[in-house]
Write a structure and sequence with these properties.
About 0% of the residues lie in helices and about 50% in strands. The protein has no helices and 25 strands. The strands form 6 sheets. The protein has a 5-stranded mixed β-sheet, with no helix packed on it.
């Protein structure tokens, strides 16, 4: 009588069978951020000149990679803060999301050179944010778990004076992205594995649907959109990025090289004017440290 036997990878992080047949590519190493373990990079965000901002979350750093020289500059550092993401407001300032640490979680703004610090929202454990057409923004309050869903998505008015709950009772909402026409918002919910698609305009206004569920431990992290409306979801703890089309159906995935070590993928972004996809991830079990990886996306970056 024959019995069950392990296949390659079965005791680690195999690709779930439902996604094993997807179009799959492996990214290339592009730039090493540091060579230390447990110093995770997050929050990749390009400006219009091709400079790439990111955070080192456990050091409270915001950094910038020069788009021409690849030189890394630290523009902000506070070890009592846990900087998680960078987004660029239409006025040119960087808006930085911070999770709870010694200091309360918050969103603060500053100029691209690190000057002009201003707190915008304080008192939530904020992982990510996305701007709407008027300059207000939605943010994720990354608290709660599957049996204690106390997190949510909140909306901040364009004058930054009012904060309203928008999607309550969530289990660790994490990534958030809004389509180029501002019609659709996507939210990842890490502690249930769920990906939400929300209508912000049109006849189905305010309709909220769970369109996909990630299997396995940890779940979906941050997410970004391309110009065709495809969603790139960093799957934390699995060393890959899953791509859903505008209807929430999986159409492809990007694996990281040396994937059994480079599992802790957190964020992606596409360089403006190109379809070059950049992915930030860390190695907690080997000596790869933290890298930015690069491959090609289905479509170009959103131009607004």
């Amino acid at each position: 009588m024959s019995g069950l036997v392990y296949r390659a990878g079965d005791q680690g992080v195999p690709i779930p069978p439902v996604e094993a047949g997807l179009q799959t590519v492996t990214a290339d190493y592009w730039l090493q951020i540091h060579d230390k373990q447990a110093l995770h990079g997050e929050g990749t965000c390009f400006d219009k000149d091709g400079n790439l901002y990111f955070t080192i979350i456990y050091e409270g750093k915001v950094c910038c990679v020069d788009g021409k020289t690849k030189e890394i500059t630290t523009i902000f550092e506070d070890p009592e803060m846990k900087c998680a993401s960078v987004k660029i407001h239409k006025d040119g300032r960087l808006f930085i999301s911070c999770l709870n640490r010694v200091k309360k979680g918050r969103v603060f703004a500053m100029n691209p050179d690190g000057t002009g610090y201003e707190d915008i929202v304080i008192g939530y454990s904020i992982d990510d944010l996305a701007f709407d057409e008027e300059g207000g923004f939605y943010f994720t309050d990354l608290v709660g778990d599957a049996t204690h869903p106390i997190g949510g998505v909140y909306y901040v008015s364009p004058d930054f004076k009012e904060v309203k709950p928008y999607m309550p009772d969530m289990a660790g909402p994490n990534g958030i992205a809004i389509s180029k026409d501002y019609d659709v918002m996507w939210v990842t919910e890490s502690h249930t594995g769920r990906i939400h698609r929300v209508m912000l305009k049109g006849k189905n206004f305010a309709t909220k649907n769970v369109v996909y569920t990630i299997t396995g431990f940890y779940g979906p992290d941050s997410c970004e959109l391309d110009d065709d409306g495809n969603l790139y979801v960093a799957v934390y703890g699995q060393g890959r990025v899953l791509v859903l089309n505008k209807n929430g159906l999986p159409i492809g995935q990007v694996l990281l090289p040396n994937r059994e070590h480079n599992l802790w993928v957190t964020h992606t972004d596409i360089r403006p004017g190109t379809n070059e996809l950049y992915i930030i991830a860390a190695d907690d079990t080997g000596d790869d440290g933290c890298w930015i990886f690069q491959t090609e996306a289905f479509a170009k970056a959103i131009e607004r």
